[in-house]
Amino acid sequence: MESSEVNMSRDSSELDESARGSSSPDLALERVLSLLKSHRDRSSVSLVCKDWYNAERWSRTHVFIGNCYSVSPEIVARRFPKIRSVTLKGKPRFSDFNLVPQNWGADIHPWLVVFAAKYPFLEELRLKRMTISDESLEFLAVSFPNFKALSLLSCDGFSTDGLAIIATHCKNLTELDIQENGIDDKGGSWLSCFPESFTSLEALNFANLTSDINFDALERLVGRCKSMRVLKVNRSISLEQLQRLLVNALQLAELGTGSFSQELTFRQYEELESTLSSSKNIHTLSGLWEAKGLHLPALYPVCTHLTFLSLSYAPLQSGELAKLLAHCPQLRRLWVLDTVEDEGLEAVGSSCPLLEELRVFPADPFDEDIIHGVTEAGFVAVSYGCPRLHYVLYFCRQMTNAAVATIVQNCPDFTHFRLCIMDPGQPDYLTNEPMDEAFGAVVKTCTKLQRLSVSGLLTDLTFEYIGRYAKNLETLSVAFAGSSDWGMQCVLTGCPKLRKLEIRDCPFGNAALLSGLDKYESMRSLWMSACHVTMDGCRQLAREMPRLNVEVMKEDGSDDSEADKVYVYRSIAGPRRDAPPFVLTL
Amino acid sequence: MQGGVVIRVGSGGGSESGSMSTVSREDNMVVSSEDSSYPDESELELGLGLSLGGGFKIQQVSRGGQYARILTAKDFPSVVSADASSSPSPSSSSSSSSSSLSRANVTAGTKRSADSVAAANGSSQVVGWPPIRAYRMNSMVNQAKAVATEGFNSTMENHKNETSMVEKRTIGSYQNSGNAKLRKSLFVKVNMDGIPIGRKVDLNAHESYEKLAKTLEDMFLKNTTSVNPVGSRVREHEVARPSKLLDGSSDFVLTYEDKEGDWMLVGDVPWEMFVSSVKRLRIMRTSEATGLAPRLQERNQRQRSKPI
Questions:
Q1: Closest to A94 (Cβ–Cβ): which among B126, B128, B276?
Q2: ipTM for this prediction
Q3: Which of A96, A479, A557 sits opposite B64 (nearest CB)?
């Protein structure tokens, strides 16, 4: 769920912490406001007047910080005294694709130190793209006796030793969610560190760890944690073991299987099928590594209730997928590999009329001699069958303007449209024209569009369209596109709700960068890499907008004047004090 | 077929300035002599010269002056790129398997490289492109290996179907025993200068440059006595040379045309990357090959100044 930034800019100078009213109206207001969960609502509330500002800050228990460098932990602690749950995001998103060097920053530790002092009752920490060390995990485990939920997504810097410490010390842990991290997997013994007396775990996700874990320990753990509703195991868990876990956890709502390819005896298969039939609460299914068509029918009983199915690690073929989906009429979200091809996507269109989200990942992104994968036809087929589709991530090797026009005509409610034509700068393969009209159609038709990723051969016209029509756009990702500064200018002057703009390998230079002077303070961040921006342009930006942090990273061997990677973001914490040598703050 | 086979890398030592042809031969001599003293003769030593960086396509990783060796299939999947300069991949639980896939990700992407990629038709070897999380890429590699080593767990048909999907060329090359028949074939044409009739070779039946070179030698040298094409301009002494077709001292070098239509010297990039970008092969006379290098340099200079 998207949350707005905490609007911090008014706080520290105006605030008198002790000015908390003790009269009833304020307490009543606090009580009422404590029911507000949405961050946007809370931000709005805090702007009404000073009383409401105070009431809001005293009643807030969860803070979301979309850019860890936009604010300091001290400022957060000063404004919000009663926080129990923190969500923090660190590195720029392109760090997921290795565009940000190691040791860039976003270290959680300084935050933990402040939290230990100010929020000893902290219960939840959710981090995305932050660096967290084993020492930090240890500090976390011992500093917060009430700690309940840890979620790490796309983080790095830690190892399974850190997980062992969490398992050992966090007596009240309800959630341990370790996803897609740069973790140093030293082995699976961490899981055995949960004490035998420990029963509070409700969500356990270690799907992305590779080492074997002690199955007996896991079996006992699952058996005694009667409130467990999320269990996502890793590939080391076999089908037979999965059955043994499930039989003691029929209350599970989300299941991530291990390897789905073990050779089973007929009896084992029957047992598995029977157990799955009894798992009537499962609505989310993932894992399914190496799933073979042979065993998929065991899942059919579960499929009836499924709303989210992730096959993004199961290279199924079209026929296998079709058979499976025939049993999934309730599906809302589906992630697949492009091994299912257009035919598989046709099955999606015909079997899953309620589908809202589709992600198609490439099984072999670097194979240029591809004769498989998905094309525009598959996407079009889904759009005909799934009119409620509003979130799509689609990796393909060919696309046409006409196809996209058809797609958005069938599905006008897109909020997230992320199309990746994998060859950079590839035109409409039928007409050889740029893909401008495709994205033009998207922004003209999909008025609710919040997030857009463009690809293919694109001229400035695409960005004219975006600037003119995409009035709700918040996040835009651009690569290998555009013809001149004008393109980026259109976006910066045209999209009123733009918050995140990330650009790579485009011909946008200083004029484009500087055209957004008035815009960047209302945005979370701007990323530009391998464009035509120079150091002088960046310095000018930094000079004119002192409340922005303008950071440049240079590549080896590049010209002195080139600003290879530029990261601009608003901050009330001032320039970073922990910037590594390769990050130049201007 | 005896002998250490060396695929000559004529671009060795080519730097931003200076003519390629004068520098290259000497550097190659250095490379060759080192290699020929290598005790294990079946080991293929390929040397990349210094400063291959921006002057060439992205495939040649800019090492900032560091001398890099391409390892043979025997050395895979040890990560060559573990010390990549400015944009290494995050430490991963499967770092040892990331190899060529994440290497493609990890190459220091300079603007020039990106330019040359963007300007050309089709290339997947750009840093961080396609935008897939490093974690996911590593898992796909892991999974392919696991599938390949499983053997025949279920019915032949199922397995064949799965692995033909999962074991794409770029991944499948990691495993070599017993699974070759499950990979799909990749036949490319091979022509040798002076021989009008070409051959075809299945790249997926080889796992390394060394094996490929051996096959090509078998094809084009052993059979020459029986090949007597009409109108052949082949002079006897060229093809009568025993075994060391692709040795540094031979009159021939092995080149290939890639997806972008450029002719490149074989051996610069990891085997998997080569396989995924090669369109056809040509065993070229050395005299023509040194002419190749300056053309490459010209093209890249053009591309550097070409606006996107």
A1: B128
A2: 0.87
A3: A557
